[in-house]
Amino acid sequence: MVTITRSEFEKLPRDYKEPWHDYWGDHPEWLGRWTALLPGHGTTLFIEGVSFEIINDKID
Q1: Long-range CB contacts (< 8 A, 24+ apart) of 12-21?
Q2: 9-22 pLDDT per residue, tens
Q3: Which residues contact 32 (CB under 8 A, 6 or more apart)?
Q4: Residue 25: CB partners within 8 Å, gap ≥ 6?
Q5: CA distance 48 to 18
Q6: Going by DSSP bridges, is the β-strand pair 45-47/52-55 parallel, antiparallel, or unpaired?
Q7: Is the terminal CB of the chain with fewer CB neighbours within 10 Å at N or C?
Q8: Do residues 5 and 56 lie in contact, with contact meaning Cβ atoms separated by under 8 Å?
Q9: pLDDT in tens, 6-57
């Protein structure tokens, strides 16, 4: 599973991320989860909680 920090995720252009819309009813459990094309992974679609995780930024 790929991890990305909250700040890195927020820097992604809106064209590269959006909530899952279950138009065909294939995965109702993913409804509302973030999907994204992550840097360095080409055109692979990542789904939050399935193939990528957003972690909080480390505060020192």
Answers
A1: 12/36, 12/38, 12/39, 20/47
A2: 999 999 999 999 99
A3: 19, 20
A4: none
A5: 11
A6: unpaired
A7: C
A8: yes
A9: 999 999 999 999 999 999 999 999 999 999 999 999 999 999 999 999 999 9
